Every structure is written in C-alpha cells, then in structure tokens.
Amino acid sequence: MLSADFDRGNSYGIKSFDFSFEGSNPATARNDITANLSLYFQSFHELIKTRNHGQGDYRVIDLLVFPVNPNNRQGTKTIRAGEYDPSYYRIRADVGWAVPDNSVELSKVLQARGFDYEGLKNALLATNKSFYLNAVDHEMDLKDNGAVEMKINYRAYAENALKTSKYDVLSSVLLRKNRDKFKEAMSFAIQDNNCSEEELKTLKQLFQQAEEELIKSTYKSLLKRLNERNKVFFVDVNENDISSFRKNGYFARNSPPRLIGVNGSSGAVQQGSVVAASAEQETARGGTNNSGGT
Q1: What is the helix (H) or strand (E) element at residue 148, kind and residue range?
Q2: Nearest to 185 by CA among 168, 199, 167
Q3: Residue 51: beta bridge partners?
Q4: How confident is the model at residue 83 (pLDDT cuts 50, 70, 90)?
Q5: Which pTM value belongs to this model?
Q6: DSSP symbols for 234-284
Q7: Are 236 and 274 spatial neighbours (Cβ–Cβ below 8 Å)?
Q8: What is the pLDDT of residues 245-272, one digit of tens each?
Q9: Which residues of 157-180 are buried (b: 16+ CB within 10 A; e: fewer)?
Q10: What pLDDT, in 10s, does the model give residues 199-257?
Q11: CA 172, CA 150: separation in Å to the nearest integer?
Q12: DSSP 164
C-alpha cells in the first residue's frame, strides 16, 4: 500500500489542470478564477515522500496539510489547524506552452510558414499566464491496486484573501486590537491544555459577543459621521419602474429606471438636502404633522 516500487514502478504525475474565469463583471472578469488539479500516484508512499529538486525539501501532501512549523505560517498567524487562512494553501500555477528548443528541423518548418524561432518564442511567452491560487477543498480516491488519485479545487487567492478579517475596510483600530487580543488569549488557552474544551467554547462565545457589539458600534459611528458630513446619498425610483422590476426581474434594456430626486429632479441627492427640503415643506404647512401618531 505504502510502497510498490518492486512490481509496477513508482513516482506520480499530473493528469489534468483546468481553470476558468468566473467573473461576471469587468472588475472580476480576470480575477475570479476557479481551477481543478488532478494528480495520480502509483502508491500512497509517493504522496508523502520527501523530494528535493534543488530548491529545498517538499512533499506533495504539503499542498493540503496545515503548516506544522509556526515559522512557515506567513498569513494572519492562525493558532490551530482548524482556523482557515488562504495563504497557507497558496500556490502559483504557471500555465501555457513550453518553449521548444531551437533546431534545424523546427527552423525549416517555421520558415515554410513565414515565421522564425524568436517570433514563435515571443508568441508562446505572451500566451503563458501565472495565477496565484489557494486550495478550497480536495478529495482522494484510493484504488484497489494501491494507487492514489487526488483532486484539489482552487480559487483565486486574492478573492479568498480579501474575504478574511485582515482586509476588513470597515473595521476600526479598537476592533483590530480586540481581535489580536482574542488570538493571544485563545493561543494561551490552547497551549499546554490550560483550558478544557467546554472552557474554550465559553471563551470563544464571550469574545464573539464582544466583537459583535464592537462591530455594531463601529458601523453606527461610521454612519453617524457620514450623515453629519452630508455624505449619505440616495435616490427614489419611479413606482412603475419598481413594479416592472419586481415582475420581470430586470430593467428593460432601452428603458432605464427613472430616478426622482428633491423637487422632482433626477439623480442622487444628499441626505442633508432632503432634510432641508422637508423642513421647508413643514414650515410652509404651518408646522403641522400629517404623518399621524398616538
């Protein structure tokens, strides 16, 4: 099972590598990438075997396992294997055509087609791409003959990294400090079995509740400052256009939604302008309130 060098050879190979662009708008057209890597091993031993090709030791299984050595964790410094960090499973995939060696036969073929070797080389290099990807999930298939087939699903590293709390643009200094303190406390609690599983669960719940309160406070402060500086904008949409969208699920191609601003104008308006206009209307009505109340 672990080693079968004696009867059918050894080593491993790449069966396939497929990738596709999943972006649905210009901003993500070339950034949202999915990829699938399929590897085949003659035995399980080839999967865990230590190799060296002049750039340090490695194992193929390292594509999947959590970095045991803390010095090799270059991401957000997770404290245990159960905490996901995209940077721990990041790879660079160089995809494209290999540039062939120049030869007399190749030169003759290129000349017959009006090309030369440098033109072919530059064309191939121009089509080659490099993608930074990180593993999302994987599956292993152990064959009856001891062989192993492994499939790994990847997504664009940037897309996954930007979803982590490290790149939370709405966080505050206090919120980031609180998250760092939580990691330090959890690290201490986990080390040397300082806390039981139940105590770890309680500690995690307490920090989660505290973070939720800080997040609410941060968002409230952000909206308050935007409102005070008249940086909150909105528009009203024509009721008929809203009804049409709810019925069809889209706006007609040649009939964009009609926007209604203050005093019937179209376009986005500042909340401060709406407040001022409402005050003027209230004054014109003699300060009466027609909204009703109890």
Answers
A1: strand 148-156
A2: 199
A3: 58
A4: low
A5: 0.53
A6: E-EE-HHHHHHHHHHSS--TT-PPPEE-GGG--S-EEHHHHHHHHHHHHHH
A7: no
A8: 888 887 777 777 777 654 445 554 444 4
A9: bbbbbeeeebeeeebbeebeebbe
A10: 888 888 888 888 888 888 888 888 888 888 888 777 777 888 888 888 888 777 777 77
A11: 42
A12: S
Residue 209, C-beta contacts closer than 8 angstroms, at least 6 positions apart = none
Rg (CA), the chain: 30
Q: What is the largest CA-CA distance in the chain?
A: 99
Q: For the chain, give me the number of helices (H) and strands (E)?
A: 9, 11
Place of tokens 């062989």: 147
3-state secondary structure of 191: helix
**DSSP tag of 78:** -
Dist CA 73 CA 214 (whole Å) = 28
Q: How many CB atoms lie within 10 A of CB 64?
A: 15
